[in-house]
């Protein structure tokens, strides 16, 4: 592509699932040219901790609309109106060549306003079932980048092009051999390692069920556990007797996820889009336990997509979680050939160049705009 410079706004936030794909794509753009990049986030989301200092950063007042009654929803219409004016001000001042939304409520006002102003706009969706913001913006934007082709069936009105790119993941993830990785955790290379995590905040329900089934697994199999509890649950979990067993490594938060993935023979996790994109790179057998309260049950839809291609076992969270999870884990431990095949099946959705593909589409939109302007002149 000829274009090597320009100004681009990225909008997203609230959770890491909407921020990390943006950061990965921004890094890819920097590798392709001299782009000035601005990130627009909300006032309270995780973007406030991880974006400032790396990129220009602006905030708008918008926040999510709760799906249950709360006094905060009363302010929602006012927040939308104010955020639209804030977005207009940011766009007029920054004068971007393109605007990219990576999902979540923050991307709504800025992408919508940009589209109405005729600024090239693109949405990057991560989930198997697109969020409400993506579904609303699809009728206005010039391009939508999808994780899987089947997502398109959930978008009723689409104005522009759609392309399957996968979900961008952080470039810092570099896998090494298991024998090297287990040394970091004080575990043994010759015994299976089960890596358990429920996202950065942990998952109390997963922790509690692991408290029940981990002793059974330790007794019947020579397994080890690398267990991220989440910071909110760590003090409780570390006092459990299971946490003091040999071969059980309990941590509140794991920064070196590449070392954790590299050490693992089996993964138990939630089914967020970023987690699944990383697991597609890791290609290990998995048991997915979707967060049951995720908006529109999108984690369950994500997990079903993965289970359909045979890359994971889906276990729904209900009163039978303990027995279902124990059955799933023992099935994979008892049938190593099935587990190995499950790991291979991740290749069907692995998109290692997702960030680069999205960056190329952004550049294409900008080039097209310049060509149209030149043609008119």
Protein architecture, described:
The chain has 377 residues and is an alpha/beta fold. The protein is elongated, with a radius of gyration of 22 Å. It is built from 14 helices and 13 strands. It has two domains: 5-167 and 351-376, Glycogen Phosphorylase B (Rossmann fold, 3-Layer(aba) Sandwich); 178-348, 3-Layer(aba) Sandwich (Rossmann fold), CATH 3.40.50. The strands form two sheets. It has a seven-stranded parallel beta sheet with strand order 3-2-1-4-5-6-7, sandwiched between helices. A six-stranded parallel beta sheet has the order 10-9-8-11-12-13, sandwiched between helices. Helix content is 42%, strand content 15%.
Question: What is the terminal separation in angstroms?
Answer: 22 Å
Order of helices and strands: EHEHEHEHEHEEHEHEHEHEHEHEHHH
Structural class determined from secondary elements: alpha/beta
Strand order of the largest sheet: 3-2-1-4-5-6-7
**How much strand content do the residues show?**
15-25%
Task: Bin the helical content.
Answer: 40-55%
Count of alpha and pi helical runs: 14
CATH level-two architecture of the largest domain: 3-Layer(aba) Sandwich
Number of E-type strands = 13
Please tell me the overall pLDDT.
Answer: 91
Low-confidence stretches: none
What integer value in Å does the Rg equal? 22 Å
Q: What is the total domain count?
A: 2
* CATH topological fold name of the largest domain: Rossmann fold
Main sheet record: 7 strands, parallel
What is the approximate shape?
elongated
CATH superfamily caption of the largest domain: Glycogen Phosphorylase B
| Assigned CATH class of the largest domain | Alpha Beta
């Amino acid at each position: 592509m000829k274009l090597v410079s320009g100004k681009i706004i990225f909008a997203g936030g609230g959770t890491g699932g909407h921020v990390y794909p943006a950061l990965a794509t921004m890094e890819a753009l920097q590798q392709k040219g001299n782009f000035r990049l601005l990130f627009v986030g909300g006032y309270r989301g995780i973007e406030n901790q991880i974006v400032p200092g790396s990129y220009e950063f602006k905030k708008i007042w918008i926040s999510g609309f709760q799906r249950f009654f709360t006094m905060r929803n009363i302010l929602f219409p006012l927040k939308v109106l104010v955020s639209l004016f804030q977005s207009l001000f940011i766009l007029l001042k920054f004068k971007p060549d393109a605007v990219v939304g990576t999902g979540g409520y923050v991307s709504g006002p800025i992408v919508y306003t940009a589209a109405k102003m005729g600024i090239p706009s693109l949405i990057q969706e991560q989930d198997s079932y697109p969020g409400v913001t993506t579904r609303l913006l699809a009728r206005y934007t010039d391009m939508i980048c999808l994780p899987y082709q089947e997502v398109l069936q959930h978008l009723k009105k689409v104005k522009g092009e759609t392309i399957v790119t996968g979900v961008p993941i952080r470039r810092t993830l570099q896998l090494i051999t298991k024998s090297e990785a287990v040394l970091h955790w004080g575990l043994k290379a010759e015994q299976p390692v089960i890596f358990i995590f429920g996202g950065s905040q942990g998952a109390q329900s997963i922790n509690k069920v692991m408290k029940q089934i981990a002793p059974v697994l330790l007794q019947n199999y020579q397994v080890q556990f690398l267990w991220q509890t989440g910071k909110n649950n760590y003090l409780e979990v570390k006092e459990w007797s299971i946490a003091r067993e040999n071969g059980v490594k309990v941590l509140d938060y794991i920064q070196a996820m590449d070392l954790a993935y590299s050490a693992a023979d089996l993964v138990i996790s939630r089914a967020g889009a970023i987690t699944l994109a990383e697991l597609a790179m890791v290609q290990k057998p998995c048991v997915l336990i979707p967060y049951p309260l995720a908006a529109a049950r999108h984690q369950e839809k994500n997990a079903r997509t993965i289970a359909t291609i045979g890359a994971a076992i889906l276990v729904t969270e209900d009163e039978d979680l303990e027995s279902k999870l124990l059955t799933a884990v023992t099935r994979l431990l008892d049938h190593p050939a099935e587990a190995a095949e499950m790991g291979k099946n991740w290749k069907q959705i692995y998109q290692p160049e997702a960030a680069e593909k999205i960056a190329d589409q952004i550049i294409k939109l900008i080039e097209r705009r310049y060509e149209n302007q030149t043609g008119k002149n």
